[in-house]
């Protein structure tokens, strides 16, 4: 579907339609259930097909198909994912309980973006939490633990491994690079490709311009000729400066209390609708502050062999139980 969307090559669309019919006949049921025997134990095979069906539905305006994708997202997907979008690498009974696969999380994100695009805007919240709480923390940023193996034959694959893996993605636990019980840590380049492609889709979806105005969908920093967004995670408050006329739509996270949201810089008329705060006539070339606290909350990630406690600030993780694992992403959770 991505190939067709770029090239318009009709044979690609034809093949996608043929595969779609086989998939919905035998794998993705109307009730949205997860069928391990039909979908297989390799969970990336499940999540990437889910994402691909969403892309097909989006490009062909097939709302019945999108409804089937949504049903699986809301029901069956929870058999293999947790609240932060981590997905077990294999759903086999004897699989490592904490070993994930990041491009699976990316598939979830890309699917959620399509669902949100078609009016189910609460899925933007899942995107924000998955990206902040799992995908970005799991990127290899500190490579100091990696050492090159002996390489007497000067093999290219054993040369400068640490630097060549900087920025990579792989098969982490929710809490760190080293899932408990796994003998090795992996950063495969196909995982890098999938994760980065999904992050590109997130970057594109942060802000959208249309006939109804400017929509701020995700609260990441953003800069374009038409609008600048200052994220509340990197600045003291959410700030938005628009440079073109039209309504400004600002997605407000569900954990932000309506009573605590203030607009101290303006007195423009605004309403709330479908998860957005809408300012009908925002002042141009002026930073509009939308002030609300990043609420502290707690989650429990229930995995096969352990519960993992998490403390959140907004949609970012501040600390997480790591059960003594090495190479943790976050500060350990303390009582």
What does this molecule look like?
This protein is an alpha+beta fold. The protein has a domain at 2-140 and 168-205: Glycosyltransferase (Alpha/alpha barrel). Helix content is 32%, strand content 17%. The chain has nine helices and 13 strands. The strands form three sheets. The protein has a five-stranded mixed beta sheet. Strands 3-4-5-9 form a four-stranded antiparallel beta sheet, with no helix packed on it. Strands 10-11-12-13 form a four-stranded mixed beta sheet. A hairpin with a 3-residue loop joins strand 3 and strand 4 (227-230). It starts with a helix and ends with a strand.
Percentage beta strand: 15-25%
Give the number of helices. 9
Q: CATH topology of the domain at 2-140 and 168-205, which one?
A: Glycosyltransferase
The largest sheet is:
5 strands, mixed
- Alpha carbon gap, first and last residue: 48 Å
Could you say which overall geometry the principal axes of the C-alpha atoms support?
A: globular
Task: Provide the structure class.
Answer: alpha+beta
Trace the largest sheet across and list its strands.
1-2-6-8-7
The gyration radius over C-alpha positions equals 21 Å
* Helical content class: 25-40%
What's the architecture of the domain at 2-140 and 168-205 in CATH terms? Alpha/alpha barrel
Poorly predicted runs: none
CATH class of the domain at 2-140 and 168-205: Mainly Alpha
By DSSP, the count of extended strands is 13
| Mean pLDDT over all positions | 94
Order of helices and strands: HHHHHHHHHEEEEEEEEEEEEE
């Amino acid at each position: 579907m991505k190939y067709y969307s770029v090239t318009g090559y009709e044979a690609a669309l034809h093949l996608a339609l043929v595969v779609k019919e086989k998939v919905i006949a035998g794998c993705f049921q109307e009730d949205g259930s997860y069928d391990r025997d039909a979908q297989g134990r390799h969970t990336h095979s499940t999540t990437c097909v889910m994402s691909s069906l969403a892309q097909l539905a989006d490009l062909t305006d097939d709302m019945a198909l999108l409804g089937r994708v949504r049903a699986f997202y809301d029901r069956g997907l929870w058999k293999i994912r947790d609240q932060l979008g981590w997905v077990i690498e294999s759903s086999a009974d004897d699989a490592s309980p904490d070993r994930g696969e990041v491009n699976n999380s990316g598939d979830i994100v890309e699917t959620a973006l399509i669902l949100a695009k078609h009016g189910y805007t609460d899925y933007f919240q899942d995107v924000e939490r998955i990206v902040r709480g799992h995908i970005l923390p799991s990127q290899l940023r500190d490579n100091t633990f990696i050492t090159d193996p002996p390489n007497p034959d000067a093999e290219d694959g054993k040369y400068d491994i640490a630097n060549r893996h900087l920025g990579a993605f792989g098969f982490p636990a929710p809490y760190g690079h080293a899932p408990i019980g796994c003998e090795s840590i992996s950063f495969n380049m196909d995982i890098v490709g999938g994760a980065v492609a999904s992050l590109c889709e997130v970057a594109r979806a942060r802000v959208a311009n249309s006939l109804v105005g400017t929509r701020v969908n995700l609260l990441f920093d953003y800069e374009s000729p038409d609008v600048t967004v200052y994220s509340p995670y990197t600045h003291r408050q959410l700030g938005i400066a628009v440079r073109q006329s039209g309504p400004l739509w600002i997605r407000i996270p569900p954990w932000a209390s309506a009573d605590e949201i203030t607009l101290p810089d303006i007195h423009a008329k605004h309403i709330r609708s479908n998860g957005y705060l809408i300012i009908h006539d925002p002042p141009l070339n002026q930073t509009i502050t939308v002030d609300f606290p990043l609420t502290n909350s707690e989650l429990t990630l229930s995995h096969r062999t352990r519960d993992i406690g998490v403390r959140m600030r907004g949609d970012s993780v501040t600390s997480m139980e790591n059960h003594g694992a090495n190479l943790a992403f976050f500060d350990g959770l303390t009582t």
